[in-house]
Automatic annotation (TrEMBL):
Presence of keyword Oxidoreductase: yes
Cofactor: FMN
Organism of origin: Oryza glumipatula
Protein name: NADH:flavin oxidoreductase/NADH oxidase N-terminal domain-containing protein
Residues covered by the NADH:flavin oxidoreductase/NADH oxidase N-terminal domain: 15-344
Similarity annotation: Belongs to the NADH:flavin oxidoreductase/NADH oxidase family.
Pfam families per the UniProt record, alphabetical: Oxidored_FMN
This protein's record includes keyword Lipid biosynthesis: yes
Chain coiled-coil ranges: none
GO biological process: jasmonic acid biosynthetic process; oxylipin biosynthetic process
Molecular-function GO term, any one: FMN binding
Record keywords, A-Z: Fatty acid biosynthesis, Fatty acid metabolism, Flavoprotein, FMN, Lipid biosynthesis, Lipid metabolism, NADP, Oxidoreductase, Oxylipin biosynthesis
Lineage: Eukaryota, Viridiplantae, Streptophyta, Embryophyta, Tracheophyta
Amino acid sequence: MVHAPAKEAAAAIPLLKPYKMGQQELSHRVVLAPLTRCRSYGNVPQPHAAVYYSQRATRGGLLIAEATDISPTAQGYPETPGIYTQQQIEAWKPIVDAVHRKGSLFFLQIWHVGRVSTTDFQPNGQAPISSTDKQITPDDSHMVYSKPRRLRTDEIPQIVDDFRVAARNAIEAGFDGVEIHGAHGYLIDQFMKDSANDRTDQYGGSLENRCRFAVEVIDAVVAEVGADRVGVRLSPYIDFMDCFDSDPEALGSYMVQRLNKYPGLLYCHMVEPRMAIVEGRRKITHGLLPFRKQFNGTFIASGGYDREEGNKVVDDGYADLVAYGRLFLGNPDLPRRFELNAPLNKYDRSTFYTHNSVVGYTDYPFLEEKKEDSATRPHSHTNQS
Ligand SMILES: Cc1cc2nc3c(=O)[nH]c(=O)nc-3n(C[C@H](O)[C@H](O)[C@H](O)COP(=O)(O)O)c2cc1C
């Protein structure tokens, strides 16, 4: 009998190399970015979320669950999940179990939208709360957010405490940790950025003052669940929701230095500045490099990455992990597709935020299923990015 010569195992691409995050062994670097999907009816997570998340779970992977309301005033979009009632905690448990059974770590992103809301979402139709009473300037989307009410100084500790309790609840539900949502123009970002913070108390004015709310939230959450179960998401360069800073580099640096003061804080997750288009292709601008260099812990980069750019940034040490949003949304087996350099499903933007429990949610085909499925799929996905 003739044996074929032993083939050398193909070297793993950088994205599929193992990584030790704190005490956790990850088997690859392809993280599911937090993605609001608006399918938690009545703010209660639903059984279909167990299907959706476990489809995307891999042994040794890291999933970050969608932004989740910390309190009744935290909501700004329809059918977002909460983590402030016992019913919500219980509803998360089977979802977390399903992900754990597949061997992934699972973090919950905890948020408060602040002024990115309307009176319709607020208890008793009250005004959304914020760092400011300045309303978001309506843009082309025709979405009009209500004029917010500026929080009084003495009300702020309660909001900080809501974050703390939400983190504790997330751990009770079984999550491995929480990601504090300090990005994208929501409440924490409203305090941090000078376009949305016009306060004159100790939470406004200087950079230190504007970051005070964020730091108090992180303090409280770290004290409650431990630094090794806390990640923080920041987007100093993003101007979403009329929320931008006149000196994003100083803001990002200040926050990273603050994060370094928590020994063992698990990760810093930063969103890239907008993409540059170079020769017709989107290129990562590597605008997060100063923050990456300053941060002592695990650094996750996200925003616009594909396989090639992800491999590049892991290989050159710009990021430890890369979080994928839209590509992971449309490809439940994204790490496997990256491994094989297989073609990707196109994501369907029109169903990002719709409420169906299957369509555009759990019906994106896996690689192996693709051939037989494509003929019978009820709708085709079009990439409108
Ligand atoms: C449908 C959708 C929902 C999103 N929801 C959240 C969210 O809940 N929390 C968050 O921090 N970012 C959210 N984002 C931003 C993504 O996490 C990610 O940063 C963004 O999509 C850019 O990464 P990508 O180019 O890999 O998609 C969302 C993006 C999309 C497309």
